[in-house]
Specification:
322 residues, alpha/beta, Leucine-rich repeat, LRR (right-handed beta-alpha superhelix), 2 domains, eleven-stranded parallel beta sheet, two-stranded antiparallel ribbon, 11 helices, 25% helix, elongated, disordered C terminus, Proteophosphoglycan ppg4, LRR_dom_sf
């Protein structure tokens, strides 16, 4: 901040601001800088601070395109509603808690041009449906917690949705949540047949809690029929509880349930065992003329599917430019 105060010519280079300082830190120099960021595109608000945030949002500048919120929308709405001209163009929203306090139903999020939504804390379907009612038909990318609540989600009305990411948020510091069963995944996949890119990240070994439940293989078989990109990042691919994960993936990509449009398969997570696990899997050649077996990756290459493996990290979804 000191550099920006002393060198005003650098201020047009600032594209993103994270307002983490306390109200007591807002002196004349800081305020002068906040009022002179003409190219600001991304704003992170860890906590509602009407003074600092009001100074920034009231300054002249282009509409904010990306917004990051930790607190529920209802907590920041009184502040943000004062500056509609700065928020009318928001296309990307990362909000930790879209469900609010769970007592009062939250108001709809008033960002009608929103195209990408990411949320971290699970909430029930009626709450999510209400919160997203004003932009659901425009949303092209959605990230949701990998939780039991997914079984009740109905994404039919999200007609523009093309990218869906289901992520275990436990590692992100938002506490543990009940993982979905395979039946929950089957249910939500049945409501988003329009999706072409899908990612699953988390404890996939717990996708079936009872022997009578559908298996993880059944969840894969329920994936959208026009899927072009699939990412599976498991916490681990080793051990008794995960023994069937790799086999289920192999059965999906070599069977009739695989989308004919599938072009990329991204596998990873855990301790890096995924590469070795899939290197040892053998399947019959795609022409089916003999019993010779080849590696799964070689088989997929024959049918035009690119396979990549990673040791960890996460599958990131970025905003698609139009």
């Amino acid at each position: 901040m000191r550099t920006l105060y002393e060198r005003p010519k650098l201020r047009p280079l600032v594209k993103a601001v994270d307002l983490t300082f306390a109200h007591s830190d807002l002196d004349d120099r800081v305020e002068q800088v906040l009022r002179d960021l003409p190219n600001l595109q991304e704003l992170s608000l860890p906590a509602p601070d009407p003074t600092a945030q009001g100074v920034l949002l009231s300054a002249p500048g282009p509409p904010i395109r990306r917004l990051r919120l930790v607190h529920p929308w209802d907590d920041v709405r009184p502040l943000l509603s004062r500056y509609p001209e700065r928020l009318v163009g928001v296309r990307v929203l990362h909000i930790a808690n879209i469900g609010g306090d769970g007592v009062q139903p939250p108001r709809p999020i008033e960002l009608p041009k929103l195209a990408l939504l990411s949320t971290s804390i699970p909430c029930d379907w009626p709450t999510f449906s209400s919160s997203s009612s004003l932009f659901r038909m425009n949303l092209t990318s959605l990230t949701l917690p990998l939780s039991r609540e997914l079984g009740a989600y109905d994404l039919h009305a999200f007609t523009a949705l093309r990218t869906l990411r289901l992520c275990d948020t436990y590692r992100a510091g938002y506490g543990s949540c009940r993982p979905p069963s395979a039946a929950d995944l089957v249910a939500v996949f049945g409501t988003c047949r329009q999706v072409t890119s899908l990612g699953l990240e988390g404890d996939l070994s717990r996708a079936s809690s009872k022997k009578s439940d559908p298996s993880f293989a059944a969840a894969l078989a329920a994936l959208p029929p026009g899927l072009e990109h699939l990412a599976l990042l498991a916490r681990t691919w080793a051990g008794p509880s995960c023994a069937g994960l790799a086999d289920a993936v192999a059965a999906y990509v070599t069977g009739e349930a695989r989308s004919p449009a599938l072009r990329t398969l991204r596998l990873g997570g855990g301790q890096g065992a995924v590469a070795e696990r899939f290197r040892t899997l053998k399947v019959r050649q795609s022409d089916g003329q003999d019993d010779e077996r080849v590696s799964l990756s070689a088989w997929l290459s024959e049918v035009g599917v690119e396979v990549t493996t990673v040791d960890g990290g996460s599958w990131q979804v970025t905003e698609t430019s139009r």
